[in-house]
Amino acid sequence: MDVDAVIFELYGLRPADFTRARDAYVAQARREKDSAAAAAIGGLRRPTLAVWAVNLLARTRPDLAEALLRLGTELRRAHRELDGERMRALSHQQHQVIGALSAEAAQLAAGAGERLRETALREVGEIFHGLLVDDEAARRWAAGRLAKPPPVAVGFEGLEPAPGAMPPPVTRPPRPAPVSAPAPAPAPAAPARTAVGRETRGVRRAAAEKRRSRTVAAREDAAEASAALRRTEQRLAEAAAARDRAEGEAADLLEELSAVRQRVEAARRAVRETKQAYRRAEQAHSEARWTAEKAARRFEEPTRSED
Fold first, then answer.
1. 61-87 mean pLDDT
2. I want to staple 1 with a disulfide (CB 3.0 to 4.6 A). Which of 37, 128, 185, 192 is the partner?
3. Mutual angle of helices 3-10 and 35-42, in 10-degree steps
4. Which letter, b or e, does each residue of 168-182 get, where b requires 16 or more Cβ atoms within 10 Å of its Cβ?
5. Where are the chain's structural domains?
6. Could you tell me if 144 and 8 are in contact, meaning their C-beta atoms sit under 8 angstroms apart?
7. Which spans in 62-185 are helix H?
8. Where does this protein have compositionally biased stretches of type Basic and acidic residues (predicted)?
């Protein structure tokens, strides 16, 4: 059995049809004594609706899949090279591309009979963002064989800059040449340092230090809030993914329950039919016995009359 072809076929099916088709292939592999194929196919998990939708996009629009792969390559290169200007431009492009791909995936899914609700749409966007960071998962997706969402990506964490990479130098506009001014009129001599001057400079230094402290504290608070927001978003994404997995497992269990109920109902019908056949057989037996006894009596009556 060609396991790769089977996997490609299974991840092109709607999630509702996945489990039944997978189990059928496992049964076929066991009949063919192909234990390796049975184990490989049996270990496949039912994809979430969002994973199926992004696979459908990659299969239907390979041009869009290739565009996302190129964008991911450029983003990772800009991050490694610490090219801030390039990263800002690509980040803007990233939001546009992910929005367009998400809308296209939702439209393709609706055309295939599946409507993506808000949770699934949010997961679709998270998957595309994760694919920009995870090149290996992006390649599986471009082949239409993504089995599960990539890890939730927060920026490009874990992607270290290239050795020796330095951010580009900040260019500043040249300062204008000083304009010559007439020499000031001589002023009356004043003491070089006075008590008032020293006090003024001390107040200014204290105010500047206070402003720096406030700026540092504000930056630390902003960084902490940003990190907390990322952690919250990650927990929400993980919770949404866990809920979708639970929904998928519940759908699998419901399918199995429906199959068991069908088998039970078939067994009950067989029992009823067996009982009906038994009653008919008993009735036929009784009728045959009565007919035999009647025939016997008719045969005995002429014999007694002759005696």
1. 85
2. 37
3. 20
4. eeeeeeeeeeeeeee
5. 47-142, 234-307
6. yes
7. 62-80, 84-111, 118-133, 135-142
8. 196-210
